[in-house]
Amino acid sequence: MNNQWKQLDQNDANAFLDAVRTPNHNILFDPSLCEVFLHPLDFFDGYDLLRISNTYSPPFALFDYVSNGDNHYYLDGSDHAFQTLCKQGSVRLTEDNVLDYIDLYFTYVYERGNSIVFIRDPQNTNFKGSDGMGNHFKAIQKYTSVRVEWSDDVDAFVIHAPLLYQDKTREGVIHVSKNGKIDVLAPLTVSFLDVPRGFEDVPIDHPKADSIISQVRDLLVKTPTGKRLLDIADEKNIDIHLIGSPNYQAIVTNKPTIYLLMPAAQYTGDMHQALQLGGALRDMEQVLGGFPRPAKDEPPEVYFTINYDKNLNLLMEICKIVEEFEDINMPEAVSAMRRLGIESIYSGYKNEASPEDMLQIYIKMMTKQGFIL
Q1: Interval 86-107: pLDDT, tens
Q2: What DSSP designation does 64 have?
Q3: Which of the pair, 371 or 302, is modelled with greater confidence?
Q4: Closest CA to 60 of 78, 23, 42, 34
Q5: What is the DSSP string of 151-183?
Q6: For the purposes of burial, counting CB atoms within 10 Å of the CB of 156, is it exposed (0-12), middle (13-18) or buried (19 or more)?
Q7: 88, 198 in Cβ contact below 8 A?
């Protein structure tokens, strides 16, 4: 996907927010907190990509839709929006846009096990931290270009491109039919969008919210810090919501309310969500203790300083939880921490870096990941 984003004016942004707002989660669609951007899509007839950027606290939460002005299909980490557009015959593919099409699909759709990642740009393999650097290096070494051509023999676009499969970079072969069906032929054989169904609506709430939150709590409670924070949340009746999203993130509002984001097609909670919930619970504890998130209309130096301080504090709490998981011989917490992209924070924590040094580590990490300019 290229970067052709255009911000909507306030009237158009408000109209879109009104059209997609979910009453139970008003703060996620509050016009005073949200900016709306449009990215043209020439492979979906009449549809564009609409992005809501919620600026409640950095890193900002993103909620993306495919919309034609009347129909708005939320991209929740499942393929439901793609299925709907294929079912209604809205796919318009050419040699010039088919790469953007599969880029969008593999970027937004979670496949159970996260076994396939399409590498459109070897400089960006969608991994963070040290894991990301290793995969980027391998991709750059092994692949220099992506090739696409139409084949009458197979009645499809034939694409040769690097894929990450089981965390290794491999040569991939993909066939894409003009109706939107995606067939991966190498390094494994699997088809997507081969039997599309239509969906009238794609809800923002995760379809397996109750069971996943229960699973994540069961993991987190194994650590002393996690148990302490969960006890506070239960005592104060803190609401914890699970939102479908291609992104993994946690948001804590000053109510306080906790939002966890993860793909709607992922049906089980894991260590990744446990660590994010642990950080969110620490943020909740600070809010309850009189240290809330700053208002958006605060001067930037106040707004960002407070948010960065709170973010670093919750990341340090995650590090403490990771260490406690290590103490009970659950090393998967370290792997999850690395996938969160906070290995430098964990290293500083383990080496007892000073608060000033930790802040510099945080700023450097967030700059490297593109969240701070």
Answers
A1: 999 999 999 999 999 998 998 8
A2: E
A3: 302
A4: 34
A5: ETTTTEEEEEEEEEETTEEEEEEEEE-TTS-EE
A6: buried
A7: yes
> What pLDDT, on the 0 to 100 scale, is given for residue 225?
98
CA dihedral 200, 34, 77, 123 (to 10 degrees): 140
Strand partners, 28: none
d(CA 358, CA 49): 37
Which residues lie closer than 8 Å to 345 by C-beta, 6 or more apart? Answer: 312, 315, 316, 319, 358, 361, 362, 365
Tokens 């919930």 -> residue: 277
- Coil, strand or helix at 285: helix
The two tokens of residue 126 are 């969608």
Whether residue 225 contacts residue 324, with contact meaning beta carbons closer than 8 Å, is answered with yes
Residues forming beta bridges with residue 159, ordered by sequence position? 148, 174
Q: How far is CA 333 from CA 2, 160, 339, in A?
A: 34, 35, 10
pLDDT at 11 over 70: yes
Are 249 and 263 in contact by the 8 Å Cβ rule? The answer is no
Q: How far apart are CA 273 and CA 18, in angstroms?
A: 30
Q: What is the pLDDT of residue 250?
A: 96
Domain ranges (residues) in the chain = 1-74, 95-202, 215-237+269-368
pTM: 0.91
pLDDT value of residue 115: 65
20: tokens are: 């997609």
Provide CB contacts within 8 A for 143, sequence distance 6+. Answer: 119, 122, 161, 162, 169, 171
State how far the Cα of 90 lies from the Cα of 142, in Å rounded to an integer. Answer: 35
